[in-house]
Structure formats: C-alpha cells, structure tokens
C-alpha cells in the first residue's frame, strides 16, 4: 500500500482494511444472484439460517407495503408514493444491523428500515395521504421523520451524532450504551451541498455516523454516470474517512457491511460511507414514468438480481424451508395488505390548527398568537357560509 495514503485523514480502520483505500475490491457480496453463499476477505455474515429466514419475511412484507401503497395511490387514496421496489435487501440488511440505541435519519423511501424499527406502515401512509405532519414519535424506535428536502437529513444526522459524543455514549465499551447514527440518502442526493457539508463536519469531528447511500442508479431521470466520474464510495477518501461498496441486492452483505460500519462508529472510530449498489425497479415516485428515460432491457436484467428471489433460492436449494413456510408468509402479506387498505381509508382527517402545536415542545407566545389568528380566519368562512 502507498504509505502516503495512511497519513491522509484519520485512521481508516482495521475493519475496512487498506484495500478499500486503494479503490478495490469493487463490491462486497456474500450471496450471489443464484442464491449461493460466497466468502469475502473482510466481511462475513455472523448470523444463522433462522435469521436469513427472518430477512426473507421482512423483505416480502416490505415489498407488500410498497405495492399496496402504490395501488392505493392509483386509486386516489394517497397523494403520492415513493417506491422502493428492488431496494428491499439494502434496507432490511442495514435496518436489522441497528441496535435499539442507534438513531436513523431517513429520506422519504426508507419503508423497509421503518418496518425494522417497528413503525406501523399506516403511519407512513398518513404522511403521503396528507393527514398528518409526520405521524410518529421519532423517539419511539429512534427513527426520525421522513425528510422531503433532498439531503437535509445528513446534516441532522451529523449534528445528532456529535451530540451523542458529548453525551458520553460513544466509545465507552458498553455494548448496551454506545450508539451510532445512520443517515440514508440516494445517489441523487450525493450531489447536494448539504450531503457534502455533512461529510466535512463528520470527518472534522470524527462523528459516529454511517452514511448509507442507496445508489439505485437514477436520480429521478438522471443516470449515475452524469453525477459522478468515480464510484460514489470513493468520494469518502476525499473527506478523510473510509468508503465501501456493497451489493445492495444482497441482504447478507448489506447486513454485514452496515454492522461493521456501525460498530466502528460506536467505538469512536468515526464516519463511514456505505454505497449500496442496487437498482430502482419501480418509478421514482408514482408521478414518474421511467419508461421515458430508461430501457426495459435494463429493468429485465436487474430482475434477475431480485433481492427476494435470491434468498428464496438459497432457502429452497439448501432444504431449509418447505412450501408451508412461503405460504405462511404470503398469508401474512395478504393480511398486511388488508390492514393497509382498510386502515388507510379510515385515517381521520387532520385538524389544521394542530400544526401550531407541533413546532416546539412548549408553545411560544408568538405561535399562540398565530394560531389564534388563523383560527379566526377559518371561522370567517363558516360565518360567510351562514349568510
């Protein structure tokens, strides 16, 4: 290894090794698209086959949430929906690597991570239906509210991580106490100034944060080739911390790499950029028509790398499950779909004045005055209708 690279920024960490500083190997993979387990020199999956069966269930149910929400939007029950089709492994693998004390800052597409943090998917639908201002308490499950402003959550994540440092819950050696932060974003967001600024602050303060980029290769209609001349994970070296590219359609590798990055952060070794290389098989959102800017042959190619199919093949080929196992999960998915359909339509209409009560923990005099004025404004319509 070029010794000059060892002096560039903080120690890149033994967990990720010097090979990543040199730009290779390109992709961490532990389960091939054909459902075969493979070894990697730096990362390993340390759970058993029962955990893999659990991952399969998680991904199937997450996909059902996504397809059900898409159908609800098509029927006019949701204003919009951000699809995750094809990205289930990246989200479930990374989500299951989290400990209870870790905190998540999502974008607007982390439905699988929300599932891992026990957020009722009806809460997600409430946001896209426009009947609440977020819907869940971020302290329940340590899962922040969805962020619509592209890349803004990465700054929030670094600030929170720096706060954890100052609270003395990083690098103590107590596995039940030490925590870290994960900031999720897409390849398009990596071009935003906020994301790059968060990299600077995270590196400068050695903040315990994992930047998890789901590179689904399309920033709406803009391909990744027009956003970056190098693989995204290599950008981390320019800021002085390690980056690694993982097969984002491999739930085992996504788990292993995120687990290692989180542990590195909890121990006080600083930030890591994880690039989960995957593919958005659906649309950017339900207002998008991807057939206008990408080839159907590309989509068909990536269907062969389906994250759920490869786990199913692994479980079946190795005789770890029978057909009853898959049938039970399919039945559970049907019940989840029914819960979402009925629950979505039953969500109560919002009280518009509630927005004034959800800005600060304690109401301010200025906001109370604004609320009173807006209430009078709304009442004026009722009075006019009465005449």
Question: Which strand order does the major sheet show?
Answer: 1-2-3-7-6
Taking pLDDT < 50 over at least 5 consecutive residues as the criterion, the unreliable ranges are 1-25
Q: What portion of residues is helical?
A: 40-55%
| Overall form | globular
Beta-strand fraction estimate = 5-15%
Main beta-sheet strand count, sense and barrel state = 5 strands, parallel
Mean pLDDT across all amino acids: 90
Structure, described:
The protein is α/β, with parallel strands linked by helices and 387 residues long. The chain has 2 domains: 3-345, Thiamin diphosphate (ThDP)-binding fold, Pyr/PP domains (Rossmann fold, 3-Layer(aba) Sandwich), CATH 3.40.50.970; 352-386. It has 14 helices and 7 strands. It has helices spanning 3-6, 17-21, 49-74, 88-96, 111-116, 121-129, 152-166, 193-204, 235-239, 251-266, 296-303, 307-317, 323-345, 365-386, and strands at 103-105, 181-186, 209-215, 218-219, 222-223, 243-247, 272-277. It has a 5-stranded parallel β-sheet with strand order 1-2-3-7-6, sandwiched between helices. Helix 8 links the parallel strand 2 (181-186) and strand 3. Helix 4 runs parallel beside helix 10 (251-266) and helix 6 (121-129) packs parallel to helix 13 (323-345). The radius of gyration is 22 Å and the shape is globular. Residues 1-25 have low confidence and may be disordered.
Write the layout of secondary structure elements.
Layout (H helix, E strand, L loop, with lengths): L2 H4 L10 H5 L27 H26 L13 H9 L6 E3 L5 H6 L4 H9 L22 H15 L14 E6 L6 H12 L4 E7 L2 E2 L2 E2 L11 H5 L3 E5 L3 H16 L5 E6 L18 H8 L3 H11 L5 H23 L19 H22 L1
Parallel strand pairs: 1-2, 2-3, 3-7, 6-7
Antiparallel strand pairs: 4-5
Helix pairs in contact: 3-4, 3-12, 3-13, 4-10, 6-13, 7-8
């Amino acid at each position: 290894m070029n010794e000059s690279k060892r002096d560039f920024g903080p120690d890149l960490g033994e967990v990720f090794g010097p090979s990543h500083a040199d730009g290779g190997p390109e992709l961490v993979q532990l389960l091939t698209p054909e459902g075969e387990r493979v070894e990697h020199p730096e990362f390993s999956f340390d759970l058993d086959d029962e955990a893999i069966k659990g991952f399969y269930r998680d991904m199937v149910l997450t996909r059902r949430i996504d397809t059900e929400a898409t159908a609800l939007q098509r029927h006019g029950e949701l204003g919009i929906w951000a699809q995750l089709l094809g990205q289930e492994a990246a989200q479930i693998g990374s989500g299951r690597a989290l400990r209870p004390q870790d905190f998540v800052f999502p974008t607007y597409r982390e439905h699988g991570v929300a599932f891992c943090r026990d957020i009722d998917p009806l809460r997600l639908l409430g946001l896209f239906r426009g009947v609440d201002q977020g819907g869940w308490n971020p302290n329940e499950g340590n899962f922040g509210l969805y962020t619509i402003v592209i890349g803004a959550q990465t700054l929030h994540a670094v600030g929170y991580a720096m706060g954890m440092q100052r609270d003395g819950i990083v690098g103590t050696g107590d596995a039940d106490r030490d925590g870290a932060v994960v900031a999720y974003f897409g390849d398009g967001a990596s071009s935003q100034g906020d994301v790059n600024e968060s990299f600077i602050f995270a590196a400068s303060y050695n903040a315990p944060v994992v930047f998890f980029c789901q590179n689904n290769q399309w920033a709406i209609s803009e391909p990744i080739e027009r956003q970056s001349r190098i693989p995204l994970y290599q950008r981390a070296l320019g800021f002085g911390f390690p980056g690694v590219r993982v097969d984002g359609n491999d739930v085992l590798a996504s788990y292993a790499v995120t687990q290692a990055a989180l542990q590195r952060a909890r121990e006080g070794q600083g930030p890591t950029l994880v690039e989960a290389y995957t593919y958005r098989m659906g649309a950017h959102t339900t207002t998008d028509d991807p057939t206008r800017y990408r080839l159907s042959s590309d989509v068909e190619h990536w269907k062969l790398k389906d994250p759920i199919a490869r786990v199913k093949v692994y479980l079946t080929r190795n005789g770890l499950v029978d057909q009853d196992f898959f049938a039970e999960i399919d039945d559970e998915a049907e019940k989840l779909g029914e819960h979402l359909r009925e629950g979505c339509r039953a969500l109560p209409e919002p009280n518009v004045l509630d927005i004034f009560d959800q800005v600060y923990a304690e109401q301010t005099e200025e906001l109370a005055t604004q609320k009173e004025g807006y209430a009078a404004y709304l009442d004026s319509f009722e009075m006019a209708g009465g005449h």
